[in-house]
């Protein structure tokens, strides 16, 4: 999980912030999807292949695993189903599915058209960025907020499950009571 934290979560979070400040909401949705997919792969890679000292080798070994059909390698949703099973929640796969739709051109166009037709608003990301947000962007910003909250909950659950110490919102560090899971 250290690889995920330092090489995916932190840079991805900064990327979301920069894109959010510039008015590039579609990039924020894509980055959240990447963070979720990475989380769903990094924790089993750590757990199943601890003998591999280089993290890239752990991910390679994970990607060689057979899929549910036994013919090909695992698909993204299979990793997410597994991840959902470990944490005991149904949110991971549904969140990934919604975020996956955000990455497609049709969804981008659908957002632009619905903003113009339904709200009389040209979204900031459909113009030259950086751009200031308008009141018409609130719906998209609220949707980004909901996705972000979902990802934060999953990251917190994964870290707690693995025994990492996670700062509480007040700044205090809680001890999960577990020293190691690998």
Description of the structure:
- With 182 residues, the protein is an all-alpha fold.
- 65% of the residues lie in helices and 2% in strands.
- It has seven helices and two strands.
- The protein has a two-stranded antiparallel sheet with strand order 1-2.
- The chain is elongated, with a radius of gyration of 18 Å.
Structure summary:
The protein is mainly alpha-helical and 182 residues long.
Which properties best describe this structure?
182 residues, mainly alpha, 7 helices, 2 strands, 2% strand, disordered C terminus
Q: What general outline do the C-alpha atoms trace?
A: elongated
Structural class: mainly alpha
**Quaternary structure of the protein:** single chain
CA-based gyration radius: 18 Å
Share of residues in helices: 55-70%
Question: Which range does the strand content fall in?
Answer: under 5%
Sketch the topology as an H/E string, one letter per element: HHHHHHHEE
Unreliably modeled segments: 173-182
Q: Biggest sheet, in brief?
A: 2 strands, antiparallel
> Order of strands in the sheet with the most strands?
1-2
Query: How would you state the average pLDDT, rounded?
Result: 78
H/I helix tally = 7
Terminal CA distance reads 11 Å
Count every beta strand, where a strand is a DSSP E run of 2 or more residues. Answer: 2
